[in-house]
């Protein structure tokens, strides 16, 4: 999770212009993932991407800084209102359960199941992309650790907070594997099944 905290109004496409930008960015990412699947990450250029998406090279750079950003898409975004609710002790009052609620909010921002599967396939084939994903996840985890400690108090051990976040990230990784093995169910369903299995194993 390379997490920037954006407002929900920014991420929910509040007007036609934002809707068009969102659709263009999504099309660019889909084309980038398709090119990566067909040729490998090193097998295509920004010019190839622009031609595939029927846009100019300049348009690509209006949305993404480079090829890796195209394939991975935007960083994981968490609605500040949801973060505030979490820090205040909500929405359920249970730390672990509330982290799962935040995870669901993140998943809802990436509702295209095929896109999630395509991203996984691209990432596992290229160590550089995998490293960038881990870097994003580490950045997001660091921010959420601070949120956990704000919620639980300064006495809450940072190592325990990091452990919780690493467990959550493991759930994401495992759900991706399950999605690849059983594409007939959605990523969200596999994520929920992973959490349920963990609860059962640790009960």
TrEMBL record:
<dbReference type="Pfam" id="PF00440">
    <property type="entry name" value="TetR_N"/>
</dbReference>
<dbReference type="GO" id="GO:0003700">
    <property type="term" value="F:DNA-binding transcription factor activity"/>
</dbReference>
<dbReference type="GO" id="GO:0000976">
    <property type="term" value="F:transcription cis-regulatory region binding"/>
</dbReference>
<keyword id="KW-0804">Transcription</keyword>
<dbReference type="InterPro" id="IPR050109">
    <property type="entry name" value="HTH-type_TetR-like_transc_reg"/>
</dbReference>
<protein>
    <submittedName>
        <fullName>TetR family transcriptional regulator</fullName>
    </submittedName>
</protein>
<dbReference type="InterPro" id="IPR009057">
    <property type="entry name" value="Homeodomain-like_sf"/>
</dbReference>
<keyword id="KW-0238">DNA-binding</keyword>
<dbReference type="InterPro" id="IPR001647">
    <property type="entry name" value="HTH_TetR"/>
</dbReference>
<feature type="domain" description="HTH tetR-type">
    <location>
        <begin position="22"/>
        <end position="82"/>
    </location>
</feature>
<feature type="DNA-binding region" description="H-T-H motif">
    <location>
        <begin position="45"/>
        <end position="64"/>
    </location>
</feature>
<dbReference type="InterPro" id="IPR023772">
    <property type="entry name" value="DNA-bd_HTH_TetR-type_CS"/>
</dbReference>
<keyword id="KW-0805">Transcription regulation</keyword>
């Amino acid at each position: 999770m390379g997490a920037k905290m954006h407002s929900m109004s920014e991420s929910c496409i509040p007007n036609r212009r934002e809707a068009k930008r969102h659709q263009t960015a999504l099309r660019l990412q889909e084309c980038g993932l398709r090119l990566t699947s067909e040729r490998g990450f090193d097998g295509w250029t920004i010019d190839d991407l622009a031609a595939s998406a029927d846009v100019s090279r300049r348009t690509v750079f209006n949305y993404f800084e480079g090829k890796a950003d195209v394939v991975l898409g935007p960083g994981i975004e968490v609605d500040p209102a949801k973060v505030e609710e979490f820090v205040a002790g909500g929405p359920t009052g249970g730390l672990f359960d509330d982290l799962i609620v935040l995870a669901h909010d993140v998943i809802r921002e990436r509702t295209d199941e095929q896109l999630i599967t395509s991203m996984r396939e691209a990432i596992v084939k290229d160590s550089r992309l995998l490293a960038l994903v881990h870097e994003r996840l580490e950045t997001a985890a660091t921010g959420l650790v601070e949120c956990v400690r704000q919620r639980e108090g300064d006495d809450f051990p940072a190592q325990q907070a990091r452990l919780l976040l690493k467990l959550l990230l493991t759930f994401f990784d495992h759900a991706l594997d399950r999605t690849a093995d059983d594409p007939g169910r959605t990523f969200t369903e596999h994520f929920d099944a992973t959490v349920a299995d963990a609860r059962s194993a640790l009960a």
